[in-house]
Write a structure and sequence with these properties.
heterotrimer; A mainly alpha (303); B alpha/beta (282); C alpha/beta (251); A: 303 residues; mainly alpha; MetI-like fold; B: 282 residues; alpha/beta; six-stranded mixed beta sheet; five-stranded antiparallel beta sheet; 11 strands; 35% helix; 24% strand; globular
Chain lengths: 303, 282, 251
């Protein structure tokens, strides 16, 4: 392998070979082919660049932002965008560009927490309901229906009202409201997959129910859930921003984009930049995740 | 009419179908030539032989990114290669029709089968709704459906596979085309039903003097049903011969195909297998 | 009775809701025999196979396999004794598993040691080159996939193989290769086959005896010699045989 690694051309042939020599090579080859397919969709690449930029901004926020996002400078209140303050300053004299850069961290925390709770939860509930059917399906799906019956933001509001405002509670509230569609999707897929011959073949091999669901059905449902999650990111960011706007999400002085719009709305006619730039940030990031989701769908869900 | 009855209905010379994919050009059909008269012409081949693409190319139904070219492609003396999309579309259904393998995917699921047949008629003929319905009922009778009145009002999911295929044939023949292309029309059907459907097809083709292109993978069926057989492999016609003379085929591929079929009359411990020679495609 | 059957089925009945798809079916297969079940769609032939394999649990009657009465829920020993090959090679392999994964799974389930050697051997036995070991199903042709499916069925070294139209989705030249492979494996390993098919020529080639089914009932059981002599007793079997000979133009 070491001699293969010398030039990009041989890497390409090593990855695209039709007779890989190891499990790892087969798996990497599969990923590489998906990447090649993904690369062909320019919109998806734009989405990927936006999401990567978001990650980089979050990682290197202290290097990129020139000001402390929390530092108030009351003598610098509501300055218009300039070379010194690219996006201007807010009512407390804080640099809006720096706050937006640090805000990426808040956004990412929300997104990550929601994803790691919602994906597996929805996947397991959906796959179990779809595979076992009968009363298990009925009970799980009626619970899902109850959650689906409420508009998401309203349900999230109710949760936050009960738990108290704050970033963690906002995340919990969003997670609670986000899983039902995932369970639905996973269930629908599972019901098709469970009758496939390759699942019958596994049963004929004497595989336990648990093994079939976890090792053979879940991997088939994961791609569409990844796609759905990516699409949903946009919605999650907007709900988080919505909660922030209503004062129920991240609490001041945390630089959360929704809360920033909220505080900026008093000046919206005179100092437009205060609310506009966080709004653009939400819009761009939501768009990025949407485009990425489109590209992933074409690559992962291709049948 | 300028064409006499023994003039060819269809002339193909050097038909090519190429698919321009990101990984290179795939030649689905490479230089196929034949003429079709008022006869039953069989096209036989395995998957990937280009037999279905040939049928689709004649109808201008090659999906993107496929490109069709031909030195000559004429329908009753009219040059098909020079025609625009709209004229080709008008030809489709009215003069050249196609029956496909599975009626389930070819019929509109939310319209009764009778209405679909009537619509197929009215697309090509100026007729009142009543006249179209009458013609449709007569057509259903012609494909030997016992209660045409009842079947007319059925939806595609309510008819069996064999009946669905008869409905398809009725729909395709109601406009009285000169050429019918049947692409594996009976492969999805049980053997006994298959023969009934073939009988109907045979009677209609003979009585109306149509040209039939019968595309199939089933050598036995083509041999017993058609007048003439083209054996295709890798997009090329390897051999064209009278159906009755298939046993005397010269080409090693045709002989190989016949040899690897299990045969009740000639039991063998081991079936012959086919060795493909790259020179066949040269 | 001194002879022990590999498979014996007594008064098997299967219903799906209101439709009674297998009716009072009885037959027996000797060890090492190859037994064909022939019929058109809706004859219940595939259902019989799924009952034998334990994939269908809504049945009544008696099913004995290797002298053991089979409950609806099979035990692990059963799966080591009988395996199945499915019709559609495009649907019977998990799209996200390599050949290696597919063959390793049954060995892992049954805790078989020396999996590495067993996988290589299974691939060799079905004529798959080792370079195919880490390929995904989409990188294989239909015939190659069917070989993988056969290797998967054989990797646990069963004595009974249930074959559900194993070649009807394949081109005739590939069909010949797969049928030859199945014949050779049967002779080498003294396997018992039940082959379900709609193709009388295939069944005549592969089986010593066959059962013709129609509307869930066994119409006629005959030997391959009877079939080859075109001498079935019942009208339906005769009709099926005539139909399979191809099209005949009246007059």
């Amino acid at each position: 392998m070491s001699d293969h690694a010398t030039s990009p051309v041989s890497w390409h042939s090593w990855l695209t070979t039709t007779s890989p020599e190891s499990r790892r090579q087969a798996k990497l080859g599969q990923l590489y082919r998906q990447w090649l397919a993904f690369k062909k969709n320019p919109a998806a690449v734009v989405g990927l660049v936006i999401v990567l930029a978001l990650l980089l901004l979050a990682a290197f926020a202290p290097l990129i932002a020139q000001y402390d996002p929390l530092a108030q400078a009351l003598d610098q209140r509501l300055l218009a965008p300039s070379a010194k303050h690219w996006f201007g300053t807010d009512a407390l004299g804080r640099d809006i560009f720096s706050r937006i850069v640090y805000g990426t961290r808040v956004t990412l925390v929300i997104v990550m927490l929601v994803v790691i709770t919602v994906g597996p939860l929805g996947l397991l509930i959906g796959c179990a309901a779809g595979y076992f059917g009968g009363w298990i399906d009925t009970v799980l799906m009626r619970i899902t229906d109850v959650f689906l019956a409420f508009p998401r933001l309203v349900l999230a509001l109710a949760f936050v009202a009960a738990l108290g405002p704050g970033l963690e509670n906002a995340v919990i509230a969003i997670a609670f409201t986000a899983w039902p569609p995932y369970a639905r999707v996973a269930r629908a897929e599972t019901m098709i997959i469970r009758n496939a011959d390759y699942i019958s073949a596994m049963r004929l091999q004497g595989a336990s129910q648990m093994r079939i669901v976890l090792k053979h059905i879940v991997p088939m449902c994961v791609p569409s859930l990844i796609v759905r999650t990516t699409y949903d990111m946009a919605g999650i960011i907007i709900i988080a921003a919505g909660l922030g706007f209503l004062g129920l999400g991240a609490q001041p002085p945390i630089p959360e984009w929704g809360a920033m719009i909220s505080t900026g709305r008093e000046q919206i006619f005179d100092q437009w930049w205060v609310a506009t730039f966080p709004g653009i940030a939400i819009c761009v990031v939501a768009l990025g995740f949407n485009l990425l989701g489109d590209g992933l769908r074409d690559v992962l869900d291709a049948r | 009419m300028t064409a006499t009855s023994d003039a060819p209905l269809l002339t193909l010379d050097d038909l090519r179908v190429d698919f321009h994919t990101p990984t290179g050009i795939v030649n689905a059909v490479r230089g196929l030539s034949f003429t079709l008269g008022r006869e039953r012409l069989g096209i036989v081949g395995e998957s990937g032989s280009g037999k279905s693409m040939t049928g689709r190319a004649i109808l201008d139904l090659i999906p993107h990114p496929g490109v069709v070219s031909a030195r000559r492609m004429e329908f009753r003396g009219k040059d098909l290669t020079a025609m625009d999309k709209a004229s080709r579309r008008k030809l489709r259904g009215r003069h050249i029709s196609m029956v496909m393998q599975d009626p389930k995917f070819s019929l509109n699921p939310v319209q009764t089968v009778g209405d679909q047949i009537a619509e197929a008629y009215r697309v090509h003929h100026k007729a009142s709704a009543r006249e179209a319905k009458e013609r449709s009922l007569a057509m259903l009778e012609a494909v030997q459906i016992r209660e045409p009145g009842r079947v007319y009002d059925l939806y595609p999911h309510e008819v069996s596979g064999g009946m669905g295929q008869r409905v398809m044939i009725a729909m395709m023949l109601i406009a009285e085309p000169e050429i019918l292309i049947a692409d594996e029309p009976t492969s999805a059907l049980d053997v006994t039903v298959q023969l009934q459907v073939l009988k109907i097809l045979d009677d209609l083709v003979t009585s109306r003097g149509m040209g039939l292109i019968f595309i199939s993978h089933d050598l036995h069926l083509v041999r017993s049903f058609c007048d003439r057989v083209i054996v295709m492999y890798g997009g090329k016609a390897l051999e064209t011969l009278p159906a009755g003379a298939l046993d005397k085929a010269q080409h090693p591929y045709t002989r190989g195909l016949l040899g690897c079929l299990p045969d009740l009359d000639h039991p063998r411990e081991k079936l012959a297998t086919l060795t493909r020679d790259p020179a066949w495609l040269a | 009775m001194t002879t022990q059957h590999a498979i014996s089925v007594e008064k098997l009945n299967v219903s799906f809701g209101d439709s009674h798809v297998v009716k009072d079916l009885s037959f027996a297969v000797a060890p090492g025999e190859s037994y064909g079940i022939v019929g058109e769609s809706g004859s219940g032939k595939s259902t019989v196979l799924r009952v034998l394999a334990g994939l269908n649990r809504d049945w009544s009657g008696e099913v004995d396999i290797l002298g053991k009465r089979q409950p609806k829920l099979r035990d692990k020993a059963f799966y080591r004794a009988a395996q199945m090959v499915f019709q559609d090679p495009y649907g019977s392999l998990h799209p996200k598993k390599t050949v290696d994964d597919t063959l390793a799974e049954p060995l892992a389930i049954h805790g078989v040691r020396d999996a590495e050697a067993k996988i290589s051997r299974a691939m060799q036995d079905v004529g798959l080159p080792t370079s195919f070991r880490f390929r995904y199903p989409h990188q294989l042709s239909g015939g190659q996939r069917q070989r993988v499916a056969i290797a998967r069925a054989l990797v646990l070294e069963p004595t009974i193989l249930l074959l559900d139209e194993p070649t009807s989705a394949l081109d005739v030249s590939i069909q010949a290769e797969v049928l030859n492979l199945l014949q050779a494996l049967r002779h080498e390993r003294k396997l018992t086959y039940i082959l379900v098919s709609h193709d009388l020529a295939v069944v005549g080639h592969m089986c010593e005896r066959l059962l013709v089914m129609q509307f869930g009932r066994g119409v006629e059981e005959m030997t391959a010699a009877t079939l080859a002599a075109r001498a079935p007793q019942t009208a339906y079997a005769q009709q099926l045989l005539t139909a399979s000979e191809g099209f005949r133009r009246a007059g």
